Fold this protein.
Amino acid sequence: MNYFLTEEQQMIKDLAAQIAREKIAPIALEYDETGKFPWDIVEVMAKADLFRVFIPKEYDGLGGGIMEMALVVEELSKACGGISLAYAASGLGTIPIILFGSEEQKKKYLPGLCSGELIGCFAITEPDAASDVLSMKATAKKDGDSYILNGSKIWISNAQFADLALVYAYTNKEAGTKGMSAFVVELKNNPGIKTAPLDKMGTRSSPTGEIVFEDARIPASALLPPEGRGVPYVFECLNRTRVSCAAGGVGVAQACLDAATKYCNERKQFGQEIGQFQMNQDLIAQMTVEVEAARLLTYKAAWQKDQGQLGNTLETSMAKYFAGEVAQRASHATMKIYGSYGYSPEYPAARLYRDAVLYQIVEGTANIQKTIIAMDQLGYRKANK
Ligand SMILES: Cc1cc2nc3c(=O)[nH]c(=O)nc-3n(C[C@H](O)[C@H](O)[C@H](O)COP(=O)(O)OP(=O)(O)OC[C@H]3O[C@@H](n4cnc5c(N)ncnc54)[C@H](O)[C@@H]3O)c2cc1C
């Protein structure tokens, strides 16, 4: 299907699809089982320039935007939600540097993030501050040419392997929404920074962990300038990265549809393929329509961003919400179609089912997206500002 992508965007999508099909799909079950970080695949993705697609040309990138990032995430997610999440999380740590970093920070970090030599992550969530981002407790206190970071971040994708973390912390709690700041923090070789892995039910090949800052001294140059801009930065970044999260949901939902279609055409009961039964057709028809609708919402939000329509919070939340719901529904339908074999780790249905739930949680839960959408529709608070 032609989605009115540019020639270059279609090439990026095709290349990511090829890597997903040839290099990731064959080992997705193994990585899911072991929960290993896919270093080999990171190298393959780096060689294919996938980390460069959304980074400006002047810092060694290919100059694309949110659409390019979303296309890669969608294709990787078709093969493995975990590997796709690891790729996306590095990107989510990169976007704030592109948007708000100083020239020095961009020159220092973006080429390494392009080549895959540096892996990024973003650290917002804390044990007691998740949907309620502003209630975070992490602090950064200025001390001469340094800041002293204290606090704990949890559920951070890539935490234990990342070289850089985009960390949000209060530099002045009393100043409220004007007191939070953003920092690009080098995680390795700092005695005040410790990471620990977290186990999880799905997207298992993506490493998730905790990052603890205990009087961690970081240079003052780590601040994404100026001080006090953390709140607008966090929401402006989420407003972009939620599109790639939606694309991840679309990829997993498409993988469900592909697997369910294949199984419907292979499995026979009562002397015929199970795809001949109308109740299975009902599931296939619903999945087919919903996956396409989620994709179109996602591409629309990505396209708007890249056209400079940055106030499309409503469209972004619609894409993120719907793609998450569709991924979850498609994975449930696929489990039904696979019957007992859905329960087996040898088939993809169980992994897709566990992976799909993620897209209703990360980067703002389904409830948070619905709140944004409903508030806008009811006229209580316009999202598109
Ligand atoms: C695999 C994985 C990877 C992740 N990666 C990252 C990462 O890289 N970086 C990062 O910073 N975070 C990351 N997260 C954290 C994720 O973004 C948070 O888990 C998410 O924002 C939701 O927080 P919570 O699970 O603590 O839910 P809570 O905020 O505690 O909410 C619990 C429930 O209450 C609902 N709720 C809360 N407030 C409201 C409200 N006002 N109205 C209606 N309902 C509400 C929520 O929708 C949810 O259903 C990751 C999480 C997972 C599982």
